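During data preparation, we tokenized the protein backbone, and the record follows.
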Amino acid sequence: MSNIYPVILCGGSGTRLWPLSRKSYPKQFVPLIGETSLLQDCAERMRGPSDAPYAKPLILTNEAFRFIVTEQLTAIGVSPGPILIEPEGRNTAPAVLAAAMYLSEKDPDAIMLVAPSDHVVPDKSAFHDAVARGSQAIAQRGDLVTFGITPDRPETGYGYLKLRHAPDQTGTAVPLDRFVEKPDLDRAKSMVADQSYLWNSGIFLFAVRDIIAAFKAHAQPLMAPVSAAVAKAEADLGFLRLDPAAWSDVDDISIDYAVMEKADNLSVVPYAAGWSDVGSWSAVQELSHPDANGVAETGEVTTIDCSNVLVRSESPAQEVVAMGLENVIAVAMPDAVLVASMDKAQDVKQAVTALKAKGAKQAESLPVDHRPWGWFESLVVGERFQVKRIHVHPGASLSLQSHHHRSEHWIVVEGTAKVTIDDDVRLVSENQSVYIPLGAVHRMENPGKVPMVLIEVQTGTYLGEDDIIRYEDIYARK
């Protein structure tokens, strides 16, 4: 039996779940439902059952997210396979082709299980059973397999798959007739009643040689630049960087448009055990186990006389009280609050567009800035000063650096910091502090086995993050 190689697409930066999901830290990294992130849930699901030959997952992501990916997978005990870094986002077709070309050199008989990192599929056993049924279609006919979700309502936010006939009770793969774009409500109602239409999940299963052949037949312009990007890829700290020059010639196109809508050997495995692309706050409400009145609460929330609402507080210091609300989304974060009618759940990205137009940093950036070594957040910002809380993971180290425009004062509040200031290296323990003069070459490290937290007070004429001159960096940041 051929090995199944999970391929996780983890480069998206969706805006439909703003303000929680933003370009700097999108929804796949957020614990939207439960304690773990969508990426972590996906990686757990892609481990496969104990009796199936699932390999380590291959991840496709970008420069900004590479360390977040490894950190989150390490936290749940998942050891990833290769992590391919896309120089730029070019949609799903080039990403899938790059993964296929990479795997074809390692295992020509490989089967790829391709999935977005930000979907919810709660029943792992049912999912693995569906993959097994898809594998049969590959073995018997060499099909390209997608997974179609049995609709439980007329949904206008999803594309549909029209099957050649309604699926039977066995869940066997059914030949695909055609793809159908997102319908209006009346059309969606008729398709659900027809029973030969399924939602398009965007999850695929195919043999490496078959999908490469499909790209050659239907998306030939992608072949040369993607092949060059993979062939010229360079290893970097455990990652594999696709060649930027070759990648710049790659078309921006989805795998549906590039290949799937043109191929004639597609089949669909019906799946009815629960699925969501978590594409709107209304979907989050449905997944958050609302009470009998449709009230879904997360965090420090109090609701009184409400119905069909989602109310979330993303800060333990922030109590959100909702009274007499109906059909409302309310999501509160320390730097931004969303209040919207439930029927506008699909339109939240319009708010992000409006914020970008006015230059609001909340459009794309969170108050917490994640870095390879940990994270920091700004607590107070003045005209010539800034106060930050900095969290450094055990064994992690910031770059050796200096600043043109600011000096810094560090106060350790948890753990122990190893501090370098020019030629002086010292340990700074809890309740101790150290001063970094303007222009001094400095670095902080966490030599311990527990997180290190310090308060940083910056003073100077310019406090931007681009006032950093790096001399050494274990994370090879440019």
In short: The mean pLDDT is 94.
